[in-house]
Amino acid sequence: MCGIAGFMLREGSRPNPEELGRMAAALAHRGPDDHGIHCNGPVGLAQTRLSIIGLATGHQPMVSADGQLALAANGEVYNYIELNAALRTQGREPRTDSDSETILHAYAVHGLDFPVELRGMFGFALHDAQAERLILGRDRLGIKPLFYVRLPDRIAFASEIKALLPILPGQPRVNPVALRQFLQNQFASGEETILEGIRRVPPGEILIIDRDLRIEQRRYWSALDIAPRAIGLEEAQAELNALMHASMREHMRSDVPFGLFLSGGVDSAVLAALLHTHGAGRIKSFSVGYRGTAMAHELDEAARVAAHFGLDHRPLALELDQVFARIPHTVWAADELMRDYANLPTSILAETAAADLKVVFSGEGGDEVFAGYGRYRPPPAERWIKGLLSPGSGGFRTRGQWSGHWSRRLLGSALGSIKEPDRAPFLQAWRSTPKRWSDLQRRQYTDLVTALPDNLLVKTDRMLMGFGLEGRVPFLDHRLVEFGLSLPDALKVKGHQGKWLLKRWAEPMLPPGHLARPKRGFHVPVGDWLTGEVAARVGERLARSRGIREWFRVESIPDLVAARQAAKGGSRELFGLMQFAIWHRLFIEQPGLAPSPDEDPLDWIASRT
Prior knowledge:
This protein is an alpha+beta fold. Pathway: Amino-acid biosynthesis; L-asparagine biosynthesis; L-asparagine from L-aspartate (L-Gln route): step 1/1.
């Protein structure tokens, strides 16, 4: 697990190692164990390394024996053992113990079709000096991030947006369409990001950049190719059993110890059971709850699971001020604006786990793959009414996060005049699905290509890597994703219960009665904190924020604060404005500024100047 950065210059120019060094410095948190820079012709590569596999021999950037290929990679190629065995028959003998080296050899043997051979989570840059091209690639589901930007003299890339800021020729500019999507959807989705010109490498694609800086996009995997299957219960259970165990065997490959985040729900409990079955032993596990709040927490359920499987468990009972002191650091760590309150406890869990470990397992993906969310099974009347009022996605993902009242009062003219619908990413995903799919499959797919890579996996990658901790997500093995999406609806949802097949398969492994417990997750009692005097002080600071004054109507903020204090809504709107103000300061006004993990968020809303 690492951070990567670099660029390809126009023909005749040569990389400046100092520029690469500044980019790498912005990624130091992703790779505290090692760093390296490689320059060849117009290409410069940089990497910061978190050593997990091939501890002594995995230095990067990695260069082939003939000097023609160079690689900077982030993530894990879980099937590197099997791939290396096959590649040896083609005369490609690994020189290191690193799983990343497999990427070099797979390209040498298979050419541009090589990503199909890789199973894992990754973002990489591969320079082929002989062919005079740079290849940027990202894993199938977008577990690992990769961004790029076209500048007048180069195309630059990095694992995180903040590593691109040092080489931008001017001040970064806000993308208003992405900002609107963040406000209304909780996150922005698609290839464009919150910063003008900076784009995401799409999941399941490689970008091929030639000597003239032309970019060819090539998709090597798409969930749209998954065909629905007519499969019975017994066959489905047997196939699920084989896939889950195969995924876990590969995900457990590591030269360092690993742990587990326990939410008290189904998915993390399944991971605990599988880790136990595969001989992980008394590994460390972590869960989180809150003191001084009426919100139900997960500590008891998580402790019960941990005791059942003999885990070395650490429950964290957090004070509210402790949780919300994480806001500035989580905004900085995420790069992209996304209002997932679970970033806050996840950040604390990550810092706690990183004191002892480099790797933790997490249950992300289980709900998307096996249809666990309640929004996947709405009552027919609700689906019909929503589809009528907001057509284009079968009644799915129709409601904005901000109320119409506060949108009209708070959005500035530039945001209020945007014609592109905020739901555009969901509409595009829904409409791209095959006609033979059911609405349930369309709902799963829409989340798989929007909310999963651009919200949940941002949390899993950036909150953890902010402390040099790798998150592994076995439910997102692409073979499991293909299996889950292809299943008949009747094996995913029965009555009011989602994830039916997964639960039926897992029940014998879990503590008695565990599946009867309500679904929880890393919830956050925002309403208990953002009220009273805290809300008033947030409102006062927002009025001084440069970003807020540029994009929003400051004169309406006192009314928003009053509504929040009177418990008449406004929580999401006020929290979203606070996030944007902090983000604007960190990424627009003062790029390079980095909060510590624990800060007073009010101090970061507006600069003192």
